Each structure stands twice: as C-alpha cells, then as structure tokens.
Amino acid sequence: MPKGFYSKFFLSILAFGLAFDGLIVTVSAQSVATDVLAHRAKLEADLAVIENEINVQKLVLDQKQKEGVSLERDVAILTAQIQKAKLDIKARNLSIQGLVEDIGVKKHTIGIYSDKIAKEQDSLAGLMRRTNELDNYSLVEVALSDQDISNFFSDLDNFQYVEESVSASLELVGVAKKETEAEKAALEAKKEEETSLRQVQELQQTRIQASEAEKKNILKETKGQEVAYQKILAQKQQSAASIRAELFSLSGSVAIPFETALALARSASQKTGVRPAIILGIIAEESNLGENVGKGIWTIDMHKTRDMPVFQYLTSLLGLNPDSMPVSKKVWYGFGGAMGPAQFIPSTWACFSGFINTTTGKCGKNSDGTWNGPWEYQQSSDRVGELTGHFPPNPWSPGDAFMASALYLSDSGADKQTSRDEFVAAMCYLAGCGNAKKTSLQFYGDDVMCLALKYQKNIDILEGTNIADQRKGDLYHRGCPSF
Q: How far is CA 56 from the centre of its chain?
C-alpha cells in the first residue's frame, strides 16, 4: 500500500465532493424553480384579472335575477352565464398551465436526486470495497510497510467517518426524493382533476349555448318587443296532455314518457320523502352527463379492485353479459363504470341493493383494502328491493334506478325538502358529501335545481299546485331560464 493512500487530504476532498454534490442538487432545483417564477407570476396576475371579471358577471347575475321576467333581463342573464362559463374555463386553463410547470420542476428535481443517489451508491460501493481491503490488511503488513501505524489507524477512522457520511447523505437524498415524488403525484392528481373539471364545464357551456340559440330565435321572432316575448313565454306553458306525452331521456335505458317517469318519481318520493321534482332533476342531469361522456368499457373504465369484482357478480346474478351492458367512461370526479339512469358505480349500488362481502360480513372492502369479495346477495339487506319488490334490483331498470337515487338523496338530507338541503344532497350525489361545498362544482347543483324547477312547473300543471312559483325566487333557483 503506498504511503498516505488514505490520507486526510483525500478524505477531505471526498467529503467536500459529497457536500458539493448536495449543493448542486439544491442550487439546480432552485435554479429551475426560479426560471418558472417569473412566468408563474404572470399567470397568477392573469388569473387575478379573470377572477375579477368572473365576479363582475356574478354581480350582473345577482342584480338581474332580482328583476321581474322580461326580455332584457333574460338576455342579460344568459349573456352573463355564458361569459362566466368561458371565464371559468379560461381560469382553469391558466391553473392547469401553472400545475404543469410545477410538475416539471418536481420532475427535474427528482432527476437530480436520482443522479445523486446513483453517484453516492457508486461511492459507497467503492468505500465498502476499500473497507474490506483495510479489514484484510494484517498488522504485520502494516508494520512492514513504510506507513506510520498511528497514521494508518487515524486514516482508517477518518475513512469510516466518510463512509458513514456517504450512507447518511444517501439516506437523506432518498427521503428528499420520495417527498418530491409524493408532491409531484399530488400535483398530477390535481392537474387531472382540473383537466376533467374543465371538460365537464365545457359541457355546461355547450348547454348554455344551446339556450342562447333558442334565445336568439326568440329575439328573432319577437324583434325585441317585450309584449311579443311575454306572449311566447305564455305559449310555452305546456298543456297537461303535452307534458304527459313528452319523452324523458334516460342513460343506459330507453326514453320513457314523462308521465311514466313522474309515476316512478312519485312512488320513490312516497317511500323516501324526497320531492319527485328533485328525483327527476337528478336522473335528468345524470343521464345528460352519462350521454355526454359516452359509452365506457367496464374492463377499462372501472376501478379494478373496487368496482370490477362487484360488477362481475352483479351481472352474473342478473343473468346479464357484462360486456354488453352500457357503463360510463372515466369522469373527472373518479373512475367510470356508472350504471343505468341513476349512474351508480357498482360498489355504491352494492351497498344499496343487499350485496355483502362475506369476508367482512357487510358491504364494503376487505381488510387489505380491496373489494374482491367473495360477494353474496342477501335479500334482507336489500334496501332498493325492499321498496320496489324486485329481488335483486337492476340498475338499468328505471324503477329500481329511481328508487336507489331517492334513497341516496334521502340519506344526504333531501327528504327535508328545503331548497338548501336539496342542493347539498345533489352535490353529495355528484362527488360525495366531502366535496359538496366546493364552489368549483356548484354548477352541478345549480343545474339540478333548475331542472327540478322545470319539472315542478310541469307537475304543478298536472296537479294544479303552485310549488314552482313558491320556490323560483330563492337562492338555489337563481339564474334558471324563464322558458
């Protein structure tokens, strides 16, 4: 062994190199972050401007909705709604762009950490080989060498210190990498949610634009005359006969006459306490979204461990071919696989229709977090079947779907029949009660309440009541079209 091979100088240089590598990781990551700061500042400034514009449109809506129905008022409301929808989408685009840049920074930092871990693993491997050499170096060999024994043991102590430092550094970098990967995963999940929400908002804008087309047609017919507009609104008050004959569209099932849909909603209402109009509003909204997201494939769009096992058991129990049953594609608020007019996912349907996980003795997941079952149908636990008399119930059957929907809404508080409770229950129906207060999702609840008001008007005509008139002025029906 050459004299001073493991000198303090070498060890100092090695220690400095390790510290310098750590500094490079920090400086490089900070450099990338600094590069995007200026651009992010501009994005945030642009977003602030857009949010101010959104607030302006909200003020327009609030002011106009307090006015009586008129041509000018309805045109202003519709214009503000469309403008707000466009601004919401624009704001979400900016938010997504910022998230993409943040993800890029995290990805770059993870790459630096990975490189450093690889280098330190190589260094540690080399140090371990050298340690082995020192361990195998006998005292006789040391005594016969030209290296001072005290220096040899001093170098050995320093060498072991550096080895321990490399191990500690490797551990710290590994932890930092894992934390950055977790942050990156969280940002990617947020980006996916924002992107999917933007797609749903675009559907919302499409519906508003359809209303705008109808409004433009009315303006053409009325030539801007208020008297003519009021006459058209009066003409749109449907007769009882036309309401009964009107088709009610369903997702995953054939359309049925409104009179049939109302009978199903009334039956569900009598047994759950939820207003028929709210049940119809939820079914109409879910069917609308179900049609827009298209036909899904259960083996692709469903949650692999949560819903697929239940879906296989459900279709087998009903004697149905799972490959031929219509389900929804993946949507922003979770996986796809929603079934029938009420758009229940299989694991939720299971808990309303008597499916028991035999490993736990109740409806729910296994102790390992999976939903593999085995599953067993218990009629005594079937809440839907108990009310419809269908054992087991079928999620693609309108009657069973209406009843399941009403049960869910009732569990969420809609049976109290206040507008606020109905709105919250609709929000729970969309993405769980934990997300019910998210302002970015409230367009769904607004849609349901407007649809419920529309159907309540029809019910009032059929039953000679005036519930719609009593409700149309409250907070949860603001912005609903007059026609």
A: 28
